[in-house]
Specification:
- The complex is a heterodimer of chains A (about 400) and B (about 325).
- In chain A, about 65% of the residues lie in helices and about 0% in strands.
- By secondary structure, chain A is mainly alpha-helical.
- In chain A, strands 1-2 form a two-stranded antiparallel ribbon.
- In chain A, about 50% of the residues are buried.
- In chain B, a hairpin with a 3-residue loop joins β1 (about 160) and β2.
- Chain B is globular.
- Chain B has about 325 residues and is mainly α.
- At the A-B interface, α9, α14 and α16 of A face α4, α9 and α11 of B.
């Protein structure tokens, strides 16, 4: 699974054929094909240097902007908009990684996040729950790692289950897993606190910094969001990420090349699980509570909406989507009654799916290529499950068409 | 070969022996509870079959995972309730439930999905969006109240059955309806021309189109029938329990699990899956209330672990 192996794979005629896509404008969003055509790095160190070198001016501008943000924004905007968007974006990032780069759209990411939140409440400090479930009251530096570890285990298990079948089944199985989890926490009073869940799940006070306050919480969420973002950016250029994208493009071919497709997919679920778990802990602290309502179908679909809204082709997508989502959530009340938020966000989601499958990023890319004189048609994401090839995805006649 | 067979038997024994022990224990301690739970399970399975058969029909032919299926269930239930309330005729409500959901399904296929053939994930995303919008529209219109039907007295009495004594007639009626619908579906798919086309389409859509069949029409008919079954189940399920927001998720979840367990795209598979899930749910509810959902989940895990395509499913992807 080394970079050299990947390079060899790409240099075979068949491999090159798979990437024969229409040429794109140089300014088009950086995608797999362009990063492959770069001089591939030979080891992890060089990869890291390569990743650092890829940090451009716009990254610096954005990072500076988000760092200065709480100093110009009101506490409401810092906490409710900024902090929440970062935490939600982190969970959605896990879905973008799985869906956009692994080709597996998992709806269970919120359940994984929710489990991490529950574990923080159960293992750490939380108020007495209804029905006798009580937390162990351990300090945060034990509770949080345990919570993330358990949630990651759950994510790996969910991955192991859902990779047994492919493509469109993933969405069904992960939805079933997520809804099962919801019913479990709702019905179970002895561990999960039943209908009410746990209250008073507060962020810790470390070195006299109270992370429940708006600005510290914002920086905490921002730190993990940036960490997650750059980690995913790094991972996508690492051999594992490359192989994963290869699996997305053509699992059969990758299998023939000697890659363990199943293992790569499960590992992707595990990696996404860590991100979702961190986001889940942040969300539990943000809400100050964790209850079945946080892991119901609504929140599960919210994560999908966020990821699709932003666009699944770049790790920045989920954060853009999360900011928009949180803004709509908070200000829909001014436009239309608050209870109709679902209608608004549902219609936005529907129009994005119908008219711009790449989300806001795709829209932006489209506008940009249109505005440029020598504009080349943007490479629209194909929404077919599995390999992104132009022939209809049909493999059920003995696999004759499978490897065209 | 013998190794795998041995393993299959081993696993069967691991599952079957505790199951047999449980059945004997339950019958010895409280046979009444056992039998009534069994009946509840079977009748719930009948309802699940009605919902899931439409889901699996649509999925089998069009590869469209219709996550708005639960919304169609709820829509049919509400429409049936409106008509049933106005005319006081439960059977008319049943027909309206079927027709209204079928119409919505037909419109969905004709106006949206026919333009996205082969883009499975995008279709599913659209159904998710539709489910969100439909759920909110229905909540807006009908509010959060709980509605219940007023069915004819004749089917709302109780029946005398040995061991359990009194048992609601309506549940038996549901079972009867499910069997009739199942037989009708079998007849439709195996004995009519459209059914033949649908079966051919499940096997190979491209060949079907190449033989000069208007595939879009077959798709529209199938989607309408699948959606109509959801609406019909909505009225039936709404009569057995009640109609309220949130039921859409519940029945979507039920059809998902039933179809995953039974085999995707297979009607007999839906029957088997519904039976397993219905029984598991009722026995879980009766014998281990707080962990009821775990049994359902466990069945799904076991099936996926050993037969990823479901019990009666075929590998098509």
């Amino acid at each position: 699974m080394s970079a050299a192996q990947w390079r060899r794979a790409m240099n075979t005629g068949a491999g090159r054929n798979a990437w024969s896509r229409p040429p794109r404008a140089p300014a088009a969003p950086r995608s797999v094909a362009t990063s492959v055509s770069r001089q591939p790095a030979n080891n992890a160190g060089a990869l890291f240097v390569d990743a650092v070198r890829s940090i451009g001016g716009r990254h610096v501008v954005v990072v500076l902007a988000v760092l200065i943000y709480p100093w110009v924004a009101s506490p409401f905007f810092t906490y409710q908009i900024g902090g929440q968007a970062m935490a939600l974006g982190l969970i959605a990032l896990s879905l973008t990684f799985l869906g956009g780069y692994g080709g597996m759209v998992s709806l269970a990411q919120m359940s994984i996040a929710g489990l991490a939140g529950y574990m923080v409440a159960i293992v750490g400090v939380a108020g007495e729950a209804q029905g006798g479930a009580s937390s162990l009251g351990w300090p945060w530096w034990i509770a949080v790692p345990i919570a993330i570890a358990i949630a990651t285990l759950f994510a790996t298990f969910a991955g192991w289950l859902s990779v047994r079948t492919e493509g469109i089944y993933t969405i069904m199985i992960t939805l079933a897993i997520g809804v099962s989890f919801f019913y479990l926490v709702q019905q179970n009073y002895s561990i999960f606190g039943g209908h009410e869940g746990f209250n008073q799940v507060h962020a810790p006070v470390v070195l006299d910094i109270d992370f429940n306050k708006a600005v510290p919480y914002y920086y905490l969420a921002l730190f993990w969001a940036l960490a997650g973002y750059f980690f995913i950016k790094y991972l996508l250029r690492a051999p594992f990420g490359m192989a994963l994208q290869g699996v997305r493009e053509n699992a059969r071919r990758m299998n023939t090349l000697g890659f363990d497709v199943t293992a790569h997919r499960i590992a992707a679920y595990a990696v996404a699980g860590v991100l979702a778990a961190i986001g889940g802990v942040l969300m539990a602290w943000y809400n100050g509570r964790i209850s079945p309502g946080s892991v119901g179908t609504g929140p599960m679909l919210d994560i999908l909406i966020i990821a699709v809204l932003g666009g699944m082709r770049h790790p920045i997508g989920p954060f853009i989507g999360a900011i928009l989502f949180v803004l709509v959530q908070n200000f829909a009340i001014d436009v239309i009654a608050r209870e109709r938020f679902n209608l608004v966000i549902g219609l936005v989601f529907l129009s994005i799916v119908l008219f711009s499958p790449d989300g806001l990023l795709g829209l932006w890319g489209y506008v940009r290529t249109r505005l440029m004189p020598r504009g080349v048609q943007p490479n629209r994401m194909s929404w077919r499950v599995g390999p992104t090839r132009r022939v209809p995805a049909r493999t059920d006649n003995g696999g004759v068409l499978a490897d065209r | 070969m013998t190794g795998t067979r041995l393993r299959t038997w081993l696993w069967l024994a691991v599952i079957a022996v505790p199951l047999a022990v449980f059945v004997v224990w339950a019958n010895v301690t409280n046979s009444r509870q056992f039998v009534s739970t069994l009946l509840n399970g079977v009748t719930l399975a009948a309802l699940y079959f009605l919902v899931a058969s439409g889901f699996t029909l649509v999925f089998g032919l069009m590869r469209n995972v219709n996550l708005a299926h639960g919304s169609l269930y709820l829509f049919g239930a509400y429409m049936g309730w409106v008509v049933g309330d106005a005319t006081d005729n439960w059977f008319l409500a049943l027909a309206v439930g079927f027709a209204s959901a079928a119409l919505v399904g037909f419109l969905m296929q004709v106006s949206i999905f026919r333009f996205m053939q082969g883009q499975e994930l995008r279709q599913t995303m659209v159904t998710i969006g539709l489910a969100i919008v439909l759920a909110d529209l229905m909540l807006w219109w009908f509010g959060g109240e709980i509605y219940s039907f007023d069915p004819p007295r004749a089917i709302f009495k109780s029946l005398t059955i040995p061991i359990v004594n009194k048992y609601p007639t309506y549940r038996i009626v549901v079972l009867g309806i499910a069997i009739v619908i199942g037989l009708l579906l079998w007849w439709f798919l195996n004995r009519t021309k459209v059914g033949m086309m649908i079966r051919a389409g499940v096997d190979d859509r491209q060949m079907l189109a190449a033989s000069g069949v208007n595939v879009q029409r077959v798709f529209a008919i199938t989607f309408a029938i699948g959606a109509g079954l959801a609406g019909l189940a909505g009225v039936i399920g709404g009569t057995a329990l009640s109609i309220s927001p949130g039921e859409d998720t519940r029945y979507l979840m039920a059809s998902l699990v039933v179809v995953i367990v039974g085999g995707m795209g297979s009607i007999p598979g839906a029957a088997v899956g519904a039976l397993l899930i219905g029984l598991a749910e009722q026995f879980g509810l009766s014998y281990a209330p707080t962990y009821g959902v775990v049994f359902t989940f466990l069945i799904m895990v076991l099936v996926l672990a050993f037969r990823p395509t479901g019990i009666l499913g075929r590998r098509t992807v």
